[in-house]
């Protein structure tokens, strides 16, 4: 993010001003009226919404993706601050500490368990909505970009390609996901086997810490910079912008989508896919989607169709891929293809921040040894043919993913073969629908237990799952011992280091939610 000397001076003076008057305790009971008065000193009233405001509901629901958290039950924000300047973020944090109001941050609203905008344990909080902090500045000479946390992945892809058709960025396949949450959890996508995670390509960031200070990579220190690149959002501060390294993609890439039913050897092909997909050349990403009794093999290849035909013939001839399956296009159009299933749409659709809303529950796993064919046969016949089944997604690791140390960032799952996700989504409201869908997905999760990662059963933090456990507060801070139950599933051996960082940068546990990182007790050092 380009900053003029005048802008930098303004931010420094603002930081000194608010820090000189803040109190240091966050243990006092919430004073919502005092919090609102404090906010109003530096934030325009139009950006502050309470439940009595006319625009509160529309703002709250503007980026809610999972309708389960619009139902009665979860607690909604006491206040929503629609920040459009970094100083608004600083003010919200400082006022929150002063008046005992905890802050949650939302960028794109895709959190599977809605923790950026709802509390399932009835905790009172205010929400920072970062959707207006969405500027993107591309430095085409250095192949770098500053990206606001409120930007979407689609907006980043579009801006990169607009600067140079050979610029790409390794991140997720859903263009409406917010950059802030995605990078905070690591960020996996179609280019990750070639270039690593999104977090592996972050080179700087601007963070508002629990004191309201504005920090960058040189001032936050290496530990906090490590933690924000994969340690999950909302635990260490508010990242308002990210400096990322853009990666090289060819002017022409190739995609395909090949469907096979169960009577067309789908189970045999999936069984074979497990053995070859993680070891394919790094220029080739081949995922599997199982939906409506069909397995769809979807590929991105960083090269021409003729090369892809040769590569698939050498590594996976059983799929029967031919030139007629190929579609050649620019990399940015391939991101359209991966989300919409077609490239017959302009790249401008990546700028549409709207997405379809539904009721959702997701569970995920990592696989370290191929599941036997018999297990896939049983999974398909016993679970995937049920009406509650919605989508199963298999994403290969390997390549650059496997060559980076599991401790290089908080994301520890680099050495698995692939990632496995089970989706249940539905559109009808009601207890019966909810109960049947949850029963299905939890049943599937139990069924695959013998075949997936163990000790711990590994889960990607960007696919948050409250079934793994939730935090408990002891002595006004989150219990480290209780948080380990879910935390080591997300972070394995990196969890303790994340807690140690938390104890340094936010020892009073101001930034907290049902699965935030707890401070590490001094006895554990």
UniProtKB/TrEMBL annotation:
Residues 72-249 form the FAD-binding PCMH-type domain. InterPro entries: BBE (IPR012951), FAD-bd_PCMH (IPR016166), FAD-bd_PCMH-like_sf (IPR036318), FAD-bd_PCMH_sub1 (IPR016167), FAD-bd_PCMH_sub2 (IPR016169), Oxid_FAD_bind_N (IPR006094). GO terms for molecular function: FAD binding; oxidoreductase activity. Its cofactor is FAD. Belongs to the oxygen-dependent FAD-linked oxidoreductase family. PROSITE patterns: FAD_PCMH. The keyword Zinc does not apply. Residues 1-28 form the signal peptide. It comes from the Eukaryota. The keyword Lipid metabolism does not apply. Keywords: FAD, Flavoprotein, Glycoprotein, Signal. This is FAD-binding PCMH-type domain-containing protein. Pfam families: BBE, FAD_binding_4.
